[in-house]
Amino acid sequence: MPEFHDHDLIVVPISIPPGTSIPLLLFGDESISQLAFDYVTSPRISGLSSTSQDQAVKAIGLLHDFHLKSQRTIEARPKTAERFLDQFCKALIFGTVQPDGSCPYDLYWRPKTWEHATAYIRQTQRFLKSYVDEQDQAQVAISEWEFLNFSLSSYHREKRAHFSLLFHLSENQATRNSPPLTQHGPHNPKAPPTTRAFPADKVWPMIINGCSKSTPKRSRNELAFTDRFNIRNQLAYLLIFMGGLRESNLFHIFANDVHLDGAGNAQVNIYHPSRGAIRHAPHGPSESTISTRQEFLARKYNIQPRNTLHKKMPLFAGWKNLLLTQGAPEYYSQVHWIHPDIGRLFWKLHCLYVSRVRPVARTHPYYFVSLGHQTFGEPWKISAFVDSFRASVRRIGL
User: Fold this and answer.
1) Contact 94/162 with Cβ under 8 angstroms?
2) Average pLDDT of each block of 10 consecutive residues along the chain (398 residues)?
3) Which domain holds residue 97?
4) What is the pTM assigned to this prediction?
5) Beta-carbon count within 10 A of 178 CB
6) 271 lies in a domain?
7) Domain check: are 279 and 223 in the same one?
8) Are residues 375 and 241 part of one domain?
């Protein structure tokens, strides 16, 4: 049987730089892969040699084919999904044809040479890591987005489990003759930024003292809790420090994404800002329907998801590729608190926030809102969050 490939690599010339070209991935239905195009034209890889670019696009094509053909096996044996990338790497190295000539994937791949297999594995790891690090590409076709999301879920899972061949190549083999992942061009390397960890012993002071409002000492005990503390900031810090969220995740939460679970804890679901599902009733409570968030925002509020705005727009909020534990059609992950008590505390603060602080928004559904006099009730901006965070840091003496 011939090897199965649902893709072709085509090379097209480009005008800048003169005399150069880029590889494109052409699927069997004659559509061009937007994922591969975005990746090969990104600063991360555009400065690489033409051979490395060809290998990168070929690796994406091979991974796409393996995903396409492995779905039947995964449906029959769901456990195999836990080792998707590991199995892909082994398929490159050893092939997929069994001793009796059969192939469980209908791929009929022959073993690649060690040089070619390790090159494709290295490029696959680089491709997936780039989407872990960079903003989500929301404009790709749904089939490519599902392929990417499934692959990224496997990436996160197998990296934590420490068993995948994708991560077990030696450092010398994985990086030999290849530039660092932070390279932004052939003559413009960019060193990775220095990251400072937040001191663990300052987390609770940050949530309590860092969110304290300035009030006269003699009347402080007489004031309501909402007058003594900035509850919105406390909720945001709990999600970051105790729920493991990135800063940018906060700005995609809708007001109805927070629920009370059966154990009395707050359940916060983080939906994909464009494709995530939402149940709403556009024609009255008796006719509820499920839409994507992009459709819902356009229909009800005439606005776009915040990750699709231009990066220079004030309300832009990026979306890193969060591991979505719930797939189609919901596309969300649940926040997991480091201790159940945190979930109960969050729910108490949430009830105060929605009943005494957050106004009923008429122009947007977002959970976190501005509390400033001129912008009260508008969606909270990242720049305003950063200002609040820095003020809280100064308040606790860091």
Assistant:
1) no
2) 87 76 88 89 77 91 92 64 86 91 90 91 90 62 83 82 63 42 40 67 94 72 82 96 93 96 94 91 76 93 91 88 80 92 96 93 92 92 95 94
3) 7-175
4) 0.65
5) 16
6) yes
7) yes
8) yes
